[in-house]
Amino acid sequence: MAGLGKRRPPRQRSGVSGLAHKRPSDTRRAYQTDTSDELPDVLEIQGLSHDGRGIARSPAGKTLFVEGALPGERVRVAVHRTRKRYDEAHLRELIEAAPTRVTPPCPYIERCGGCDLQHLELDAQRRHKAVVLSELLARQGVEVDLERIEVLASDDVAYRRRARLGVRVDADGGIHLGFRARRSHRLVSVESCTVLVPELSSLLAPLHQQLASLEAPRQVGHLELLASDGQVTLVIRQLREQPADLARWRAWADERGIAVGVLAGREQVRFEWLVTPPRGLQVTVPSARGPLSLGVGPSDFLQANAQVNQRMIETALDWLGTPRRVDEPLLDLFAGIGNFSLPLAASGYAVSAVEGSPEMTSRLADNAAGADLDVAALQGNLHDEGQVARLLRTHDAEVVVLDPPREGAEALCRALAKSTVSRVLYIACDPATLSRDAAHLLQGGYRLQRVAMADMFVHTSHLESMVLFERQGPSPRQGVRKDG
Description:
With 484 residues, this protein is an alpha/beta fold. It has helices at residues 122-138, 198-201, 204-212, 243-256, 306-320, 341-346, 358-370, 385-395, 410-417, 431-443; strands at residues 43-44, 47-48, 54-57, 63-67, 74-82, 86-96, 149-152, 162-169, 175-180, 187-189, 220-228, 231-238, 259-264, 270-275, 282-285, 292-295, 329-333, 350-355, 376-379, 399-402, 423-428, 446-454, 464-471. The longest helix has 17 residues, at 122-138.
C-alpha cells in the first residue's frame, strides 16, 4: 500500500518560548561558532525558502535557514546544524512577528510539525507556492507572470483522505501512534489530526487503544488509512503473523463497519483482506458525462486531496477542450487507475492509457469497462526512452497527458521533444523535476500556454502543478520534406 500517505517530516518544539523548535538529539549536531562570522543577537528574516523556512544572512553573507520564521520578522535563533555553504536553525524567540503570521489550527503543531506552513496565513501560503513554481520555471528560461498562475485549492482543514501512521512500542511498553518528527525517526503520538477527513481523524484514538490491547503490538510496523466513497479502509503492516491479534482486528473492524486488510511478512509480503469492503473501494471523478466511479485497490496510487483532484481533472478538461476532430488520439501516460483517462475519454478523445503497475493497469481496464468507455489500457516502462519513443510513434497521438511520480519523466520528455505530438499536458508533483523536464520540451519547440499551482497538501510547502505546452511551428519530422 505504498501509495497511501507518505509523511512530510514534522517539527518539534523546545521549551524556550511558544515558538521554539527543538531538534531531537539523534539529529542535532553541536554548533561551533565561527568567531569571524558570529551571528547578531537578533536576526531579520529576509525571505522564505522553497521548503518554507525563513532566510537570514550572517554579517559575512552566509545563508541561514530558520524553521518557523517568516519574512519581515525579527527573531533570536539557535543553530542546530552547520554546513559549508549554509547553516540551519530554529526559533528561540520571536521579537517582532510578520503580519502574515497566524495561530496554527493544529494542537500538535509544535510537536508534530508535518504541516510546516500552518503559521503562515492561507493566501500567503498559496502565493509563496506560486512564486516557487515561477522561480523554478524561470531557471529554464520560462518567465511566468504570477497573475497567470491559476490556483487550484480546497478547504484548508479536513481535506486529506489517506494517511500512514507509524507505530512504536517503547521500552516501558507504551504505545505510540502518529507521525514522524521532522528529520527524525522519533514518533509523535497524536489523538486527532486537523487535516485528515473527520472519519479518519476520529479513528486515531480508538486505534491507539486497539494497539494497546494486542498481544504483540511490536509486530505492527505501521497502519494506513483510506477514506473512499462511503468506505473507510485500514491496512495493517504486520511484520510477523499473529493469529490472535488478527482476530482482534476483525472484531474491532466489524464493530465499526471498517474494511481491514493486512500486509503480512518481512521478505515475502502478502496482502489479505480480514474484513472485505462490501461494495469494493470506489472514488468519484468528474466528467462531461457526469460523475464517474473508479475502483481503487489498497495498493493503488490515489491523490490525497479529493477536492483538489477534482479541480485538476476539471482544469485538464477545460484546457484541452473537446477533441479537434472525431476520435482524436490521446495518450495518457502514468495513467494509474484512470483518474484522467476516463474523463478525457468521456469528452470524446480516443484514449490509450499506459501505466507501469500491472495491478493498476488491470484496474484501469476494469474501470473503463464499468463506465462503458473505450479506453485501451496498456502496461509499459515509461522511464525507458527507447520504449516511449516507440510508443509515441505507434500511437501517433496528437495530445499527450502525463502524470509521473516525483522523479519526473525525463526520458519521456526527451522523446516528446523529437515527436509530432502537438500538445502536452504535464501534471507534476515536484516542481523541480517539472522544470528539468520542461527544458527538454522547450528545446524541442514547445511553448508554455497555461500553468496552474495545485495546493494538494494545504499547510505544507509541497505543491503540485499543471502545465500545458503546445508545439510552435512544425514538429521535427514535419519539418523534413520528402521528395519524389
